Amino acid sequence: MRIFPAAAAALTLGLAPVLAIAAPPPADGLKLSQIVAQVETSAGAALAYIDELEWDDDGYWEVKYITTDGRKIEEKLDPRTGAAMPRR
Predict the structure, then answer these.
(1) 49-69 burial: b if 16+ Cβ within 10 Å, else e
(2) pLDDT per residue over 12-68, tens digit each?
(3) Which of 32, 55, 71, 88 has the fewest Cβ atoms surrounding its Cβ within 10 A?
C-alpha cells in the first residue's frame, strides 16, 4: 500500500486537535466551587442561574450567566482571584 504525502499530511493535520493537551488551571488557582461562589457573590440578587462555566486555555475561567431580568452576562475570571478580568 502506498500513502501519498498529501494524504499523510491531511491525516496528520486532521488528528492534531485530538492529540492536543489542554493546559489545566494553575495549581495555585481557586477551586471551581470557589469560582462559582465568587460569581454568586458578585452578581448578587441579580443572578438567576449560571448557564455555562468553563476553563479557557488562554488562562481564565469563562462564565455565562442569566440575570433575573433576562440579561445574558459573559465574563472572564482570573483563576487566582475570581475577579472579573478587564475587557479588551
Answers:
(1) ebeeeebeeeebbebebbeee
(2) 555 555 556 778 999 999 999 999 999 999 999 999 999 999 999 999 999 999 999
(3) 88
